[in-house]
UniProtKB/TrEMBL annotation:
Keywords: DNA-binding, Transcription, Transcription regulation. Belongs to the LysR transcriptional regulatory family. One of its GO terms (molecular function) is DNA-binding transcription factor activity. This is LysR family transcriptional regulator. Residues 4-61 form the HTH lysR-type domain. CDD domains: PBP2_CysL_like.
């Protein structure tokens, strides 16, 4: 009995990504009839239809969505087999698709990838930097081999490996009214103007949880990354919770200060995240080994040791 072929899986994955057989054929350098035959043969072989047809587009149905991660995994393993068979025993070849949350991608990419790239210069790395929710979704559907995100990755189907401790700090300009107080209490933040990350980021979830312990404030801006938030704070638009590693230079120059908030717990854990049960080829395992062995960033380590845990009254 003839089984499923790699070509059929390649066409299926490409059609799922592009929404049409024609586009998939062009990407794979096939004729459109050949791609159509491969997809039809796959559906006939497994006995189910994988796509719904609507408005000249192909959309994955429930069966197709369930099969897509498995198809991607099979293709990844086959590619790894071909590469490793051609490589010398001491050389790792291939490509890793890595996702990083905005904080990791902006400030910790050296810790994450430096050791791996130094040891395996022939390997190719694609890095996607996005918010945590997007990274987790792409790890789950096998678009990414691994992700590195902040906060708990509490999703079924994911395996999270603790990687680093991190913490945020509340920052303001030195001339901000809150910066003039010798000691801050939760009540001092009543009506404070906050600059927050966008919904879907783990940073936003942590900050919202902790700000709920304070009197009601005002959200004046929602921005997609820490650098944009830092610039807004520097412009005097409000206060914000930022990774200490993101504001080292501004703290040293006296452009920003940290507001002491021992009544907030802004600690968080950074994790390496994989699809549960995912095959760990030699390349992926090498990345895990080097990332977990990498030396800690000194500024981040200092921040993580600042552990205030007193609680305060409720904000909104």
């Amino acid at each position: 009995m003839i089984g499923i072929s790699p070509r059929q899986l390649e066409v299926f994955v490409a059609v799922a990504a592009l929404g049409s057989v024609r586009a998939a054929a062009e990407q794979l350098h096939l004729t459109q009839p050949a791609a159509s035959m491969a997809l039809a043969g796959l559906e006939r072989r497994i006995g189910v239809v994988l796509f719904d047809r609507a408005r000249q587009r192909l959309h994955l149905n429930a069966r197709g969505r369930a099969m897509l991660p498995q198809a991607r995994e099979v293709l990844v393993r086959m590619q790894a087999l071909e590469r490793n068979a051609a490589a010398s025993p001491d050389e790792l070849l291939g490509e890793l698709r890595i996702g990083a949350s905005n904080t990791v991608g902006s400030y910790r990419v050296g810790e994450l990838l430096g050791g791996f790239i130094a040891l395996h210069p022939q390997a190719s790395v694609q890095l996607l930097v996005d918010n945590t929710q997007t990274v987790l979704e792409r790890v789950l559907d096998y678009s990414l081999d691994i992700g590195c995100v902040e906060g708990p990755a509490a999703r079924s189907g994911l395996e999270a490996l603790p990687w680093r401790e991190d913490a945020l700090c509340v920052c303001a300009r030195p001339n901000h009214p809150l910066a003039q107080r010798k000691r801050l209490a939760p009540a001092d933040f009543s009506g404070a103007r906050w600059i927050l990350r966008e919904h879907g980021s783990a940073t936003r979830a942590l900050v919202e949880r902790e700000l709920s312990r304070l009197p009601v404030g005002v959200t004046v801006l929602e921005l997609g990354n820490s650098e944009a938030i830092k610039q807004a704070v520097l412009a005097g638009l409000g206060v914000a919770c930022l990774p200490r590693v993101a504001v080292r230079a501004e703290l040293a120059a006296g452009e920003l200060i940290i507001l002491s908030t021992p009544f907030l717990d802004l600690r968080r854990e950074l994790s390496l995240v994989l699809a549960r049960g995912r095959y760990r080829g030699a390349l992926l395992q090498a990345l895990l080994d080097t990332a977990q062995a990498a030396p800690l960033n000194s500024a981040a380590t200092t921040t993580a040791r600042a552990r205030g845990s007193r609680r305060a009254t409720a904000r909104k």
